Amino acid sequence: MPDRNKVSQTCENSKLLSEDHNWHGGKILDQANAKGNALDTQGAIRSERFTQRALHKHKSVLPNSISLNGVLLKPFGGRNNIQDLVRARYMSTLPKKPTSLHSLQEEVLEKQMELVELAKLKGCYDKSVLDKQLVLVRSKLFRDYAVMIISVKAGSQTPGIDTEKYNKDDEHTFVNLVETLREATYHPNKYISSPIKRVWNPKPGKSEKRPLGVPTIRDKALQALINLVLLPLVEMTSDPNSYGFRPHRDCKMAIAAVRNQLKTTDLTKVRFSISKRFNKVGNQSAHLMRANQDKWILDADIKGFFDNINHKWLMDNIFLHPSLKKLLEQWLKAKIFDDGIYIDPLSGTPQGGIISPTLANFTLNGLEKTVTDSLSPLTKSVEQRMQVKLRDGTYRRFALATRLIRYADDFVVITRSKNILDKFVVPAINSFLKERGLWLSPQKTKQFCLSQKDAQIDFLGYTFKFNPKWSSRRTMIFSRQTEGAIALYPNRMKVITFIDKLQEIFKSSQNLSAMELITKLNPIIRGWANYYNLDNSSHYRSKVKEALYRLTWEWIKAKHPTLGKIALAEMYFLRKNTVIEGAVDQNSPLPDESVKKGYRMFKNYKWVLYGISKSSSRFSNKDITRIAYLLNPINSTPIVAAIKHLIPNTLLNVHAFEDKISELIKLKLKISLLSSSKTPTLKEKLYKKQEGKCHLCDKRIDFDYLHLNSVHIHHILPIKSGGGMFSLKNLALTHSWCHREHKH
Predict the structure, then answer these.
(1) How many Å separate Cα 393 from the centre of its chain?
(2) Residue 322, Cα to own-chain centre: how many angstroms?
C-alpha cells in the first residue's frame, strides 16, 4: 500500500469525477458561490481522461504510488519521465494561487456570517447547518483561504514530523495543498492524519515545560479549513465573560473584568447611598454587601486541561458534520512522536494545533451559565434581587452577584461568601468538568478573600492585592476613598523573569555595537511596557529601568575594561547637553529631522545609552548617520486605568460574526490610541494619524501586531516618481497582504 501521508496530488477514478461534476453543477454551486469550482472540475475531468489513458498505456513502468483510487501523485522531480509528463499536463489545468488575501477574507467572512444566521434560526446541530458546513469546506473559496492563512503564519516554516516547510516561492505548493484539502473533504474515510511532533517549551519563570504539538503542513491546512466553519458556531455560543482565543478580545479585557469586580470602594458611603435610594429591601441589601477585599474568590486551575479533554464527549457534542467529525477524530487519535517514541493519546488535544484553541473554548463554553444556574435556590433571596439603575435606564446587579471571568482554561470566580462557593459554585463546576473528563487541581485551586494576610490573585501576568495601608515610599497606589486599597500591578515573578531575560541578552551581545544592542533590546522593552501599563504598574516599571541601567553599565565595563567611568560615559551615554549634528533619529522622529539639543524626550533622564551607525540609504547612494536610544520602560508607553479596557454590558454578548462587532472593534481602537507610546515609533505615529485603519483597504489594523511583519509602511507616491522618502504626508500604514497586492 502506498504511504498516503507523503502524496500530494489528486488522481480520481472516472466514477468519482462524474459525481464531483454533478455536485459542482447542481444546487451546491449557488450555496457555496463556487463558480470557479465548476470550471476547475471540468478541467480536472479533461485532465483525468488524459491521465487515465497515459496510466493505462504505461502501466508497467509507473511506480506503485500512482493509483486510480484517489491517491495523490508525487511531486515533480521523480525519476519517471512519464509520471512527470502526466503530472505536468494535470497541473496545467489547475487554478492558480489567488493574489488577494483581503478579498478572500471578505468573502469568507460573509459566508461565515450566513452560517451563524442559519444556526440562530435552526440551532447548531440542525442538519441544514451541518450540511452548509460541508458545502463551505468543499468550496474552492474556503480551501484557498485556509491555505493562504497558514502560508502567512510563522508556523508555516516550522516543520512537522515530515520535515517539510511551506515553500512560498513554489506556486505548486499552494496548488497541491488546495487539491489535498479537496481530496480529504470529499473522501474523509481515506484521510489518515500524520503523527504529531512534540516539542517542549519552557514556561516563563518556571522550571516546568509546556508540551506543544507540531502537525505537518498538510494537517495544518486541513485544520485551518475545518476551523473556518467551526469557529463561527463556537463564537456564537461563547460565554459573555470568556476572553481567551477569541477574535477582538484580549488579556487586558479579562483583567479589566476582574478589576471591575475588585475596585477600591468606601463601603460606608456605598451603603448609605443604597439605603437612600431604595426601600426597606434595598436597605437590607446594603447591609449584606461586602467590601471588595472581603469578597470570596475561587482562583481555579484545571489539571492538565489540554491533555485530559474527553474524546468521546468532544465527538458526541461538537458542532460538525459527520463527515468532518471523521477528520477531527483522526487528529485526536494521531500518534505523538516524542523523543523517538510514538505515543497513542487516549484523551486531550495537542497544544499547538490550529484548531486546538477553538476546541478548548468549545469544551468550556457554558461554564459561566452553569455557575449562574447553580445559584437558582438563591433566586428569591435579597442578595440576588439587589439592582442599581444605570444612566442609560437599564438595571444592573450591584456587586452582589457571583461573577466568573475566564481566559482560555484560566478562570476566577468572585462571590459574596464562602458558603456560596462551597455549597453551590464549586459542586457545579466539578460536575461540569467531570462530564468533559476534567477536574480542578487540588494543589493549585485556592479559595480566599483579599483581606486575608498575604492573599493575592495572580491572573494573566498581573497581581491583585489588598493592603489596609500602602506605604507612601513604595508609591504603589493612591486611593482617594480610603487608606486601604486593592492594587493591580505586574506579577513580581514575571518582572524577575523579564529582567533575567534582559540579562541573558546583554551577556550574549558582548560583541555587538551599541547600535546593534539597542536595535535588539528596544522591541522587547517596548512589548513588555505595552502589556504592563495598567493601573499601578509604575513601581515595577521603575525596577526594570534600574535593572537596565545596571546591566548597561556592566556591558560597557566588560567591553572596555581599561577605561574609566567618565570616558565610558562620554562614549555611550547621551546627556542633556549632547548635540550630534546631522544625525538621524532611528527611534522615533522621521529620518529627515536632526536630533534636537537637550533631547526633550529624556528631559527627566540624566543619561541614556545611545548608538550611532553609518549606512547607505536603500533609496539613494548617500550615506546616512543614524542614531538610536535605549527605550525607557517608564515613559515609553503611558499607564492606563484597567477599567478603560472593560467591555460594556451592551457588548458582552457580541461575537466576531455579527454586524455589531464593529462597535467592539471601535472600542479596541480607542483603547489602542489611548495606550500609544510617549516615544512613538514611525509605525505608531502613522497608526495614530490614520486612526488605526489600513490606508489601502480602510479596515482596522490590530495594534498588537503593529511591530510585526504583518504591517507595512507604504509610499503613497513612489520614490522614483518624486515622492518623499521620509515625508509623513507620503507614508501610510497598510496590512502586509494589502501592500503586496497594491500596484502603483
Answers:
(1) 36
(2) 29
At which residue does the C-alpha cell 506543544 appear?
A: 212
Give yes or no: residues 459 and 501 share one domain.
no
Residues 446 and 301 grouped into a single domain: yes
Round to whole Å and give the CA distance between 201 and 193.
24
For 351-367, write each residue's pLDDT tens digit.
888 999 999 999 999 99
Domain-located, residue 373: yes
d(CA 198, CA 212): 6
User: In one letter, which amino acid is 330?
Assistant: Q
- Dist CA 158 CA 163 (whole Å): 8
Give pLDDT tens digits for 623-639: 677 788 898 898 888 89
Residue 318 CA to residue 305 CA, distance in Å, equals 17
C-beta neighbour count of 671 within 10 angstroms? 18
CA–CA separation, 590 vs 569, rounded Å? Answer: 27
Residue type, 556: I
| Identity at 148, one-letter amino acid code | M
Cβ atoms 610, 618 nearer than 8 A? no
Distance (Å, whole) CA 407 – CA 430: 18
Number of structural domains in the chain: 3
Q: Which residues contact 331 (CB under 8 A, 6 or more apart)?
A: 193, 215, 219, 223, 349, 353, 355
Half-sphere CA count of 163, side-chain side, radius 13 A: 0
Residue 72 pLDDT exceeds 70: no
473 and 513, same domain (yes or no): no
Q: What is the pTM of this model?
A: 0.77
Secondary structure element (H or E) that encloses residue 675, with its range:
none
Cβ-Cβ contacts under 8 Å for 211 (sequence gap 6 or more): 198, 199, 200, 307, 338, 350, 351
Alpha helices in 123-245 (DSSP H): 127-138, 140-152, 171-186, 217-236
pLDDT tens digits, 659-677: 888 888 888 888 887 877 7
